[in-house]
Protein 1
Amino acid sequence: MTDPSELAKLYGPKELKAVKAEQQQCAVRFTPCGKFLVGGGYDGLVRRWDASGDEFAELPPLSGHGGWVSGLAFHAEGSRLYSADSWGRLRAWSYADAAPQPLWETADAHNGWIHALAVSPDGKLLATCGMDRLVRIWDAATGGKLFELAGHAFDVLAVSFHPDGKSLASGDLAGIVKHWDVAAGNQVREFDARQLYLSNRLQDVGGVRSMAFDETGKMLGCGGARPKVGGNVQGVPLAVLFDWTTGMATHALEFGKDSDVYLCDFYFDARGFIVAVTSGNPGAGKLLMQEFDAKEPFFSIAKPNCHAVSRHPSGLRLAVTTVNANSNGNGRLKAADGAEEYPGNWSPIVIFDMPAPADA
Amino acid sequence: MKSNPLCKPWEHRLSRRRLLGAGAAAIGLGSLVRPAMAEELKKRQKQVLFIWIDGGISQLESWDPKPGTQFGGPFRAISTSVPGIQVSELLPKTARQMHHLALVRSLCTKDNSHSAGVARIQRGDPKNRGVTYPFFGSAVAKLLGAGESGLPPYVWVKPGSGGFIYADAGFLGPKYGALAFGDGKPPENLLRSPAVSAEDDAFRNEFRRRADRRYAQRRRGGAVEANSFVYDVAQELMKREALFDESQYSPRDVERYGSHELGRHMLKARKLLEAGVTFVKVNTYGWDTHGDNFVGHANLVPKFDQAFAAVIEDLAAGGLLDHVLVIAISEFGRTPRVNGHVGRDHWPEAWSAAMAGCGVKKGIAVGGTNDKGTWVAGEEFDIGHMFHTWFRALGVDPRQTEYENNGQPLPIAHEDCRAVEEVLA
């Protein structure tokens, strides 16, 4: 382990600006070409911003989804964007077009909420998972369903391809992670991440809310919380790291206190640390950077309710999806100007500049 | 505790009802029920299944979905067995029972805190007269009585521990409290120990009754009456132990209602209604989804859906729905806007309740909210309106029936409210 203050100097990001998304966003991602920032919103729109400079001007959105746009994934070839929504729709787009139309659409990809999707490393396959407890594999070129993977007993919340493209991992509400053989279409083994789950009163709480492999494929990370109570869910944000070869959990990294709740999104930085965001009680959220064997993050900045983090392909920028401050409150609340209109919430997308490798 | 029988001058404004109550008392009817009504109630005992969703349930993820709107959330709406009425996709089984149900989608109540809301809703939020009003279960126990089952009139099947919840009764006195079966189980040590013979048991009970009577002669009756009542109830329950033997329940029923807590408790409630209990309350905790509302409701609502649809289907199939009033309600709804914790907060401004059965129209949705689900569109109904509606559905006219509290006449429902006529059959 290195001196945390040195690590913070080397890798710690600096806030550039906040880009306003008029509606709350499930997640915002940089495209593989780095020229666009794309967000999936609570209003069924896929929003785009020009990310080629510092302005982040908003471009025409992609419409046609229903409910929430709950998943976004890319493949560099053909500038493909795949988007999924909470009404079970799956779409493919050429995201760089001025006015993109869907390349294909599957209206009933799942029965209800698609929680996550992932693109295989070669770009040929698409994996989706949802509240129907299924994982489905699609031909990324046509949108045709290839096969489905059944066996989860709870809603499937996260899915990720192994870097070798041969294996797929999926994680559910109960903290069960399944390893699937993609070619054979069957389950290989299960990983136990049940510390991310709590059965509380009538509610199943927690689950695998985020999932990622490291670049080498030796480590699988599952993010969520160590839930303490349901309802107003409370619990310490947690990342459970597995040795992919042995299937054993090697780390359980905690990222805060009970009110910080979910580790909503993260990625492994090849330089030996994890970059994560948390969202808990209204207003509680952080962007964090922590080495695997450290007890504390070497970098932490508070931002209200951070739901996603995306690294620009250059490695020089981060986009963190947050929620406006004062987003909660019981009962009647009128707009600040006293109008009858009931105010909604929105998502500031906080852009950070990262130190260039030459500086590091 | 010393009660104050004195009332204030302004509490005598409703002299017409007071006179009606006094008239009933004069002809020896205990002041509560007019003769024709008493005969009618005797003919067919009305019952209530009161399902309390504590926390409470989001109207947008249940009875009043607004898919594709700013605050609509991630879920779709689905059609029901009644053309034109849609509910959340999280209620597929209930949707198939919609032809039995009556929804009120225009509730607008006062409190947005649990501490005030739970009691105010279950007490009907009457005007303040310096007394503690009874919860609806205690009110029904008083107004309709125990019937001929011998079982207690107000039973509460609840998670956690049980006991005798006398506080629900308010000024009616502890006898009208709830007998709570914790986790649906009978009171501990209910059955007579084999070490005590039936003769000894009878002797002990007779001794207790005599002691109670003697004790009561020089004291106010409420507590003593309640004490005796509990023993009498226990004796009746001892004869009904089969009610609690879940191994005797049909495996198909267990599967249909769900093996989860709410499913087991709802099935127990049906058994208690079939056995003749006047008022059965079933409650479920954990619906206060300030955080993670949508994943939460995605696994909470289907459990409610399973148990609720099963009990509606069974009560209808068995003919019980003709005289059982079913109510599913919370202390408030949940905010349209989604907070940063992906939760919804407390929202008494525009929310919904579901009803079915006795005295209630079938397959209707009354009232509504605007297109965003933020405010009631049209007339707002407070909980007082619902109390008027429920009493009317049970054959009790709240305009002509009053409580009598140590000589003080008290309306049974808020006198500024009225029944929602559109709901009543």
Protein 2
Amino acid sequence: MALIDTKGLRGRRIKDRIFSSFVWILTFSCLAVVFIILFYLFKMGIGSLNWALFTQGPKPVGESGGGILNAIVGSLIVVVLGAIIAIPLGVSVGLYQADHRGRRISDWVSVAVDVLNGIPSIVIGIVIYVWIVKPTGKFSAYSGSIALAIMMLPPIIKNTEETLVLIPTTLKEASLALGASYYRTTMKILLPTGIGGIFSGCIIGIARIAGEVAPLLFTAFGNPGLTFNILKPVDTIPKVIFTYASSPYDDWHRIAWGGSLILVTFIIVLNAIIKIFESKWKVQF
Amino acid sequence: MEGTILRTENLRISFGDNLVVKGINMEIAEKQVTAFMGPSGCGKTTILRSINRLHDLTPEAKVEGKIFLHSEEVNGMEAMTLRRRVGMVFQRPNPFPTMSIFENVISGFTLNGIKINKQEKNEIVEDALKKVALWDEVKDNLNKKSTALSGGQQQRLCVARAVAMKPEVILLDEPTSALDPLSTAKIEDLLYELKSNYTLIIVTHNMQQAARISDRTAFFYLGDLLEYDDTKKVFTNPKNEKTQNYITGRFG
Amino acid sequence: MKNRWRILENKIFVRWLSMVTLVTMVLLIIFFITLLISSWPAIKANGFGFLWGKTWDPVSNHFGMLPFLIGTLITSFLALIISAPFSVAAALFLGEYYPKGVIPNIFRNVIDLLAAIPSVVYGFWGLYTLAPLISKLEIKLHLPAPGVGIFTASIVLSIMLIPYSVSLIRQVISMTPVSLKEAAYALGSTRAEVITKVIIPSNISGISAGFLLSLGRALGETMAVTILIGNSPEIPHNIFSPSYTMASVIANEFTEAVSDIYLSTLIEVGLLLFIVTTIINLIGRLIIKRVSI
């Protein structure tokens, strides 16, 4: 007869039940927290969503109303400029990495990119301050964009590399066999074929920087006025949330909640786009 | 030999420490179909790919010796120019997935930045597709994505793509091994038609295919050229014992 | 002629690719050098005592980092400890209990939503919801009750860490060879036993690496912590005390720094932050690489 320890077996079964209950409870707590926070955000922010929020700049202390138009424009400027800087650079490195996979140099670059990814964003802000803000003596939108661009590089590089590596070599060979140069093969065949994954990486990068404040604290700094000049300091949505949240004024808090709702909705939409992309847009080879 | 278009002189190719092709001297006749045959690893595909210098892409590959296209040395030429004169069809059909059928056929020109007007484009595409007997099947759907075609049609599209460039030589690396028998038959007919205008070199594992469509056959074994003669002679009266064994199926 | 241009454009392109890649790789070194040079005046002036100096006095230019060091370490470790059971549980739930199916997929996406909320919004939320609750708790415990402090910041920080550590731990656990698990089940083990006696022990280095990387993440978190930490440059008495972290002091005081040495000192804090997070990332990455093979 097989060795069966019936008394111990019951104890083990009970332990198993307790364990899985814990796993369930803890997991559901995580889900609950998500709903609590998002619901609260919605509740507090929905009341502030009015036309003025989107079309007006901040009002002076004491006056009620006003909006964050300056911050919305500022965010757009800083993010778009950051993307314009980061995308060509990131895709280029991704290309290089895909071509040199398995070689020493590409391994070192991978390490560097991973470490770059882990640098606290405020440290990046310090470095850009030293490089640009201090010598020019001015805060500016473009210095903020450069800081954000550095933060965008790792996801763009990784996604580009991973997408391009999946493209069968035979496609590249077919193009070269027709007499095309490496440059033309890349621009006309490889990049278009991999555009889905590359685009995904760019959106991930944008989602990451859209809510950042730390690197902008001493680069783009802030600006209560509306400006389209990239040489001037600008406010961004997360920055005004920070400023207003740290203030004692209820009015400002209200606006900050409206801004928070807009910001979080934007980022969630971006994440949804990424997820849909990753399942649908796959060019058949 | 008269009508020689390609000639190799002591062609040796190694990958790292591995010597794969051990000094090949051969001449390829113009406007004929030459078949490269032999068991896996004999070097036939390696030799084929050295003709259009695809090994330039592999840093571990070392190509020694000379290859002559007419009287020009292949390694002295500009690689991109060479590849416009020597076309290639690959084992798995590989039309460019982001391009339509029309754009695929004309891709040799667009990728090389050669400017041609719309009328010329239409003529080239129609001509090439007719040559590969694909025109009637796709003429109303030229703007569809190339991936909408069946495997056999895609491969014919790839031949059309190569043919559109009006190359002097077309290299084919096991072009029908990934296709069903019906498509294979269609491609073989097409290759037979093409040889009146182009020189074809085809690597094949399929002996019957070599026997059917080639004029001359080269038998390779472990990097050496063991036998090279008219196809009829190689198949009915092979001089080398290994050729005989391969043909009768003693090894493969 | 046209041919020459094609060759040239190709050459330029290939050069461009290697150049950009080289610059990216060297970027880290450039960062380090920049921080080092800019903090050098402070390093010379403050000396080694900076690391355990207790007072932070910008007025008399006497700088000591100990309060921030303590604040940073306690908040980060506390956040890690609080989040650990939740992250491990969720990772097990999604990896072992329900690896496939529509509902777990939804759960995974919901947990990922936590990553979509920016740091500053977390801080704002914590300020409005958590801080008053903690304040009430502090009153009950007869402590001063500002509501903000290490504990509040740690809780919010732990929530922020969850999506990150869940995905890391899931990755690690998924690499357990199926044969190992099957062998344990075949011997009649319960699921809890397979998890606690086989899966977790065999992946312990990977899981530790996951925690290490989460710690690195926590150390660098700025905005949420700045809003909730209480911004007090004193050494904290207990976990409810207001405190300060390295990242927060930089965030708050950088633009107010009136003297060069003040600014340089703040950059020195940034340099230390850079060094610590880089080392942690390198080690964590190394461990995960070892385990992935």
